[in-house]
Structures are given as structure tokens and as C-alpha cells.
Write a structure and sequence with these properties.
The chain is α+β, with helices and mostly antiparallel strands. It folds into 2 domains: 92 residues; 73 residues, no CATH class. 58% of the residues lie in helices and 23% in strands. The protein has 2 helices and 3 strands, in the order αβαββ. Strands 1-3-2 form a 3-stranded antiparallel sheet. The model has no long low-confidence stretch (mean pLDDT 81).
Length: 172
């Protein structure tokens, strides 16, 4: 019986030693693997963040590329129009070097109706002159008067504003 007790004791010790070894192994593996898994998980998060940054940068670049393509097509269209206009200008003899330009600036000038008519006639277009207005305004001096029809007793004064560029063909 003693032998049997000894065998059971040895088996129980061996079993306890195996259990201790198993617990120790799990502890050691946990102590080693947990930091490695933590580092690996942290690296994965950093890589994911970098991928998201790269994706956002690519999406922004793609958006900008789409805008550039749209603007390029508008540029091509306007460039073709510009070439056509330049050709038309040359054919009509409107080459900029053949013309002199003056800035006209009459701002709220008080004049009689006859004087205002002279100003308007002076900027009338003809084959040798033309006017590109930026602003034109004509007002009567009194709000009761009519700008287009003068009546007996009306004030003859008007206010004229003429702003723009006046072009005249240089003598050949």
C-alpha cells in the first residue's frame, strides 16, 4: 500500500508540476505576447491612419484634377473664341495698333439739353471712331421735368455722366 500511496503521490506531484508548468507557460507567453500584440495593434492603427491620410490626399487631388479638367475645357473653348475674335478684328481693320484710346470721364456734369446733345454726338460711333461705355447716365435737374420731352417752363438743365474708352483710328 505504501507503494501505491507513493505512486499516487508521485502522480499527483507530476500532475501539479504539469499544472504549474502550464500556468507558468501561459504567464510567460502572456507576458511576452501581450506587448508584442499591443505593439502590432498600435502599428496597425498607425498604418490605418496613414492610409486614411493618403486616401484623403488622393481624393483631394482627384477633386482638383476634375476642376482643372473642367477649367481646361473652358479655357480651350474661350481660346477658340479669342482666336476667332482676333481674326474678325483683323479682317475688319480693328487692329489695336491702328487706334488711339482716350478715357472719357464726365461725372454728373450739369449742362443744357443742347450741350448734352453735343456730348452724345461726339461719342457717336462711325467707321473712324467708337466708344465703349463703362457707365452712362442722364438725369433731369428737376424731378418734375421729362428727360425726353422739353416743355415750356421746364428747366433746361440735365446732369450727364459718361465714363468709358473712346477710340479713334490713327491717320494712315
Amino acid at each position: 500500500m505504501r507503494v501505491q500511496v507513493q505512486q499516487q503521490f508521485v502522480l499527483s506531484c507530476q500532475k501539479t508540476a504539469r499544472q504549474r508548468l502550464a500556468v507558468f507557460s501561459v504567464g510567460v507567453c502572456s507576458a511576452v505576447l501581450f506587448p508584442l500584440l499591443w505593439v502590432s495593434l498600435n502599428q496597425s492603427h498607425q498604418q490605418q491612419a496613414e492610409r486614411e491620410k493618403t486616401l484623403n490626399a488622393i481624393q483631394l487631388s482627384l477633386s482638383q484634377l476634375v476642376d482643372v479638367e473642367r477649367l481646361y475645357s473652358v479655357f480651350v473653348e474661350h481660346n477658340a473664341e479669342l482666336k476667332q475674335l482676333s481674326s474678325d478684328i483683323e479682317q475688319r481693320g480693328l487692329v489695336p495698333a491702328d487706334w488711339t484710346m482716350r478715357q472719357i470721364k464726365l461725372s454728373k456734369l450739369e449742362a443744357t439739353r443742347a450741350e448734352a446733345e453735343v456730348y452724345l454726338d461726339s461719342i457717336a460711333q462711325s467707321p473712324t471712331v467708337y466708344f465703349i461705355p463703362e457707365r452712362f447716365e442722364a438725369k433731369v435737374a428737376d424731378s418734375k421735368d421729362d428727360l425726353f420731352r422739353w416743355r415750356q417752363g421746364s428747366i433746361d438743365a440735365v446732369f450727364v455722366t459718361i465714363l468709358g474708352r473712346y477710340y479713334a483710328r490713327k491717320p494712315q
